[in-house]
Amino acid sequence: MFQLRKLPYEPTEFGDFLSPEAFSYHYGKHHNTYITNLNNLIANTDFANKDLFEIIQSASGGLLNNAAQVYNHDFYWDCIAPKSSEMSAELKNALVENFGSLDSFKEKFLASSTTLFGSGWNWLVLNPKDKKLEIVQTSNAATPISESKIPLLVVDVWEHAYYIDHRNARPAYLEKFYAHINWHFVSQAYEWGLKNGVESVRFYINELHK
Q1: Any idea what the Cα angle at residue 119 is, between residues 175 and 11, rounded to 5°?
Q2: Closest CA to 126 of 103, 104, 95
Q3: Angstrom distance (rounded) from CA 75 to CA 83
Q4: Residue range 90-98: average pLDDT?
Q5: Which residues contact 123 (CB under 8 A, 6 or more apart)?
Q6: HSE toward the beta carbon, residue 192, CA cutoff 13 A
Q7: Predicted confidence band of residue 37 (pLDDT cuts 50, 70, 90)
């Protein structure tokens, strides 16, 4: 049985970016519902003994949607922090190499996040085939690990992620999100991805859901 992960911070620490009410709704209701649905869907099936990474890689339909949403939310919570941290020199160099400058990366990442139509997620990923960084949009519950790409950073742009605090002003939410990125975690994900490829994703998932 999968369990709702614990957050590495208190819901009261994010000021006007995410209020305790928004956390309660997003984490306590939405994220928790995906956990409940996932457990119900795998009960008494061949998936009951598989880890979350295996389920995402092999499932379809409602099972895939709920499994992917558990992972997507797990990863999102680690991508934010009460205070922004410094990125590693290696990640900084990679962002400059792939996007021209840090400012250019921010502009492109926020533009992609803003223009994603409907509900979904916007990602910075490492493509293990060429070691390049890419900005990837996914709709609804889709996740880049289904295409064997390695997530480094994600922002949730489902309306439930920001409507309580920002109403329909997605750009305002995104600017505040960017100020709260956990660059230490993103840098670690980049380092792990370079060393271990997609297996770094499996390791991350299994550390949360042992």
Answers
A1: 55
A2: 95
A3: 17
A4: 98
A5: 135, 136, 137, 138, 144, 151, 152, 153, 154
A6: 18
A7: very high
Q: Which DSSP string do the residues of the chain spell out, in sequence order?
A: ---PPPPSS-TTSSTTTS-HHHHIIIIIIIIHHHHHHHHHHHTTSGGGGS-HHHHHHH--HHHHHHHHHHHHHHHHHHHB-SS--PPPHHHHHHHHHHHSSHHHHHHHHHHHHHH--SSEEEEEEEETTTTEEEEEEEETT--GGGGT-EEEEEEE-SGGGTHHHHTT-HHHHHHHHHHTB-HHHHHHHHHHHHHHTTHHHHHHHHHH--
Tokens standing for residue 174: 């995104």
Each residue's pLDDT tens digit, 44-82: 999 999 999 999 999 999 999 999 999 999 999 999 999
Read off the tokens for 117.
């139509």
* Tokens 């297996």, located at residue: 199
* Order of all β-strands in the sheet with 120-127: 132-139, 120-127, 150-156
Cα–Cα distances (Å) from 85 to 67, 186, 190, in that order, read: 29, 10, 15
Entry field: residues in the chain: 210
Q: Which of 108, 97, 102, 29 lies closest to 69, judged by CA?
A: 29
